[in-house]
Amino acid sequence: MTTAISEIATKTLAARTAGWEDAVGGVTCNRTKGIAALGGSSLNNEAAYMMSKLYRALGLVYTETQARN
Q1: Which pairs from 8-14 meet CB under 8 Å and 24+ separation?
Q2: Residue 42 carries which DSSP code?
Q3: By the 8 A CB rule, do 20 and 34 touch?
Q4: Which end of the chain is more exposed for a tag (fewer CB within 10 A), N or C?
Q5: How many CB atoms lie within 10 A of CB 62?
Q6: At a CB cut-off of 8 Å and minimum separation 6, what does 48 contact?
Q7: DSSP reduced 3-state for 20
Protein backbone atom coordinates (compact mmCIF):
# COMPACT_ATOMS: atom_id res chain seq x y z
CA MET A 1 0.00 0.00 0.00
CA THR A 2 2.78 2.41 0.89
CA THR A 3 4.47 1.72 -2.44
CA ALA A 4 1.27 2.53 -4.34
CA ILE A 5 0.75 5.82 -2.49
CA SER A 6 4.39 6.79 -3.04
CA GLU A 7 4.08 6.02 -6.75
CA ILE A 8 0.90 8.09 -7.09
CA ALA A 9 2.52 11.02 -5.25
CA THR A 10 5.65 10.81 -7.40
CA LYS A 11 3.71 10.76 -10.67
CA THR A 12 1.38 13.57 -9.53
CA LEU A 13 4.33 15.76 -8.60
CA ALA A 14 6.10 15.00 -11.89
CA ALA A 15 3.02 15.92 -13.96
CA ARG A 16 2.43 19.05 -11.88
CA THR A 17 6.04 20.17 -12.25
CA ALA A 18 6.11 19.49 -16.01
CA GLY A 19 3.16 21.81 -16.67
CA TRP A 20 3.91 24.45 -14.03
CA GLU A 21 3.67 28.16 -14.92
CA ASP A 22 4.92 30.79 -12.48
CA ALA A 23 4.06 33.84 -14.53
CA VAL A 24 2.34 34.58 -17.82
CA GLY A 25 2.83 37.99 -19.39
CA GLY A 26 4.42 39.35 -16.22
CA VAL A 27 1.45 38.32 -14.05
CA THR A 28 1.97 35.75 -11.29
CA CYS A 29 -0.36 32.80 -11.82
CA ASN A 30 1.18 29.71 -10.06
CA ARG A 31 -0.77 27.08 -11.95
CA THR A 32 -0.25 23.81 -13.79
CA LYS A 33 -1.67 22.62 -17.08
CA GLY A 34 -0.12 19.18 -16.60
CA ILE A 35 -3.13 17.71 -14.76
CA ALA A 36 -6.89 17.90 -15.34
CA ALA A 37 -9.73 16.63 -13.16
CA LEU A 38 -13.23 15.32 -13.87
CA GLY A 39 -15.77 14.88 -11.09
CA GLY A 40 -18.77 12.58 -11.27
CA SER A 41 -22.45 13.41 -10.89
CA SER A 42 -22.81 11.09 -7.89
CA LEU A 43 -20.67 13.32 -5.63
CA ASN A 44 -22.42 15.08 -2.79
CA ASN A 45 -21.70 18.73 -1.96
CA GLU A 46 -19.09 17.93 0.70
CA ALA A 47 -17.08 15.56 -1.52
CA ALA A 48 -17.23 17.97 -4.46
CA TYR A 49 -16.10 20.83 -2.21
CA MET A 50 -13.14 18.86 -0.82
CA MET A 51 -12.07 17.68 -4.27
CA SER A 52 -12.28 21.24 -5.57
CA LYS A 53 -10.10 22.48 -2.68
CA LEU A 54 -7.53 19.74 -3.40
CA TYR A 55 -7.43 20.58 -7.11
CA ARG A 56 -6.99 24.30 -6.46
CA ALA A 57 -4.27 23.61 -3.88
CA LEU A 58 -2.41 21.55 -6.50
CA GLY A 59 -2.74 24.47 -8.94
CA LEU A 60 -5.07 22.77 -11.43
CA VAL A 61 -6.76 24.95 -14.00
CA TYR A 62 -8.82 22.37 -15.87
CA THR A 63 -11.56 20.99 -13.60
CA GLU A 64 -14.99 19.83 -14.72
CA THR A 65 -17.98 18.11 -13.13
CA GLN A 66 -20.99 16.27 -14.44
CA ALA A 67 -23.30 17.89 -11.92
CA ARG A 68 -26.83 18.50 -13.12
CA ASN A 69 -29.52 20.63 -11.52
Answers
A1: 12/58
A2: T
A3: yes
A4: C
A5: 13
A6: 39, 65, 67
A7: strand
